[in-house]
Amino acid sequence: MNLVYDPQHHLNQPVTSADRVLLAVQQAIVEGELPAGSKITETGLAKQFNVSRAPLREALARLERCHLVERTPNAGARVVTLTYDGLIALYQIREELEGLACRLAAERMADEEIEALSKLLEQHLASQRVREGESYYQEAGDVDFHYRVILASKNQYLINMLCDELYFLVRMYRVQLGMNGPRVSRAFDEHKAIINAIANRDGELADLLMRRHISASRKNIEQKLSAHKEVS
Amino acid sequence: MNLVYDPQHHLNQPVTSADRVLLAVQQAIVEGELPAGSKITETGLAKQFNVSRAPLREALARLERCHLVERTPNAGARVVTLTYDGLIALYQIREELEGLACRLAAERMADEEIEALSKLLEQHLASQRVREGESYYQEAGDVDFHYRVILASKNQYLINMLCDELYFLVRMYRVQLGMNGPRVSRAFDEHKAIINAIANRDGELADLLMRRHISASRKNIEQKLSAHKEVS
DNA sequence: TTCTTCTTAATTGTCGACAATCTTGTGGGT
DNA sequence: ACCCACAAGATTGTCGACAATTAAGAAGAA
Questions:
Q1: Helix (H) or strand (E) holding A155
Q2: pTM for the full predicted model
Q3: Which residues constitute the domain of residue B56?
Q4: In this complex, do A157 and B89 lie within 8 Å of one another by their Cβ atoms?
Q5: Which residues contact A112 (CB under 8 A, 6 or more apart)?
Q6: Which tens digits make up the pLDDT trace of A90-118?
Q7: For residue B178, is it within any domain?
Q8: Chain B hits for A157, Cβ within 8 Å
Q9: Does position A169 have pLDDT exceeding 90, yes or no?
Q10: A55 and A160 share a domain?
Q11: What are phi and psi of A40, to 5 degrees?
């Protein structure tokens, strides 16, 4: 059983080679296989993936869309560099957008969907208790929860922005800064409170709780980062 | 003097042919020259703009990014169709993101920037009083105000999302639904109140006022739309 | 007539080559 | 030694052609 979470489960399967290359490069960047800040040469990557430059350029365009590479005309593309300010900026937006998503989800989710999400949480909790501290699983669980809430908002722009554009960056920060979970049990409690608010159709509360949840996550990361700074 | 507002003043000049084609097609879609819902054939547009398909496909990818066209693999691209739900979804996001932008602007704008924006408002007010009801100018002024606030947030993701992705759609809705301004004087008052809150460094109030401002704009459009429905 | 199926045409995806641009390294001058 | 101009190399942007897939239309059966 593969525990690696597919971040694009809401999208269609990759059909074109540009799609395949995109997925591969996305993973390579998120996992750090292509180091942050490194230069990307089209010819190089094209050879590496056994495709022509045409589909690779298509993939690059989409990578730029999800903020994983930065391109300058006639000069090429670089993998983004992770910065403290960038992380803050990212989480600021997440707070607003996921708060909104949560409010909309509370208004629009079908009862069965809520039930299913609640079940999923129980499931994660059980698995987490079994594998105490196994963090990647936790991350997948967290991502999964957020994904479901976002999809439940049924706002297409919101879904695109969060799932297609921002979430790769979120995962990249998590992976490369080693955000393996201490915050596990608290995160689960917060998820639980959020799903309760949604079940009560209390959009306002769900919004507030989601913002707090993300804010807490941000503060947690900030704390880890400053600790890391002291060392280095 | 050309009153047409350049929506990408914060970006570099177009350097590649893909850039030029992108700008042209963006304008064509926003203005309705390429009708909403119509199919886009790559060969056709390529010939129309005297370029090869390669730069045109690059442009198409970016058009998809700003939600002006929808592509399906192996099937081609269509200009987006404007819907009531889409408009609501768009303004929901604008409320959140521009509210955030406004709060950040209140915290981060330099005194001189605030002064300049205030001056710009006075300028718009004067011009608007001269040409009573000339609406496109008003739109440019409104767009300009929002652009400046967004840029002042200094959050790069926010700037990209709002200025590069969503604002073309906003303009498309405005142009094609004939949102010429009745709401002129009230909009100016609201802008004035917002800049005041920013000048007082009251981020919370600036946030609230911007949300209300956009909410009012949305309700105004909703009203017009329902009136339009009664006719047709 | 209507539906299905197959053929044909049109359109998108991909490729390799060339042109335009930027980067690097060398040489000369101060 | 330092700086600037220039040339060679590498990289991106663009092009036209071919392959793969889809859409359109004709032919035939119910």
A1: none
A2: 0.90
A3: 17-79
A4: yes
A5: none
A6: 999 999 999 999 999 999 999 999 999 99
A7: yes
A8: 67, 89-90, 93, 166
A9: yes
A10: no
A11: -115, 120
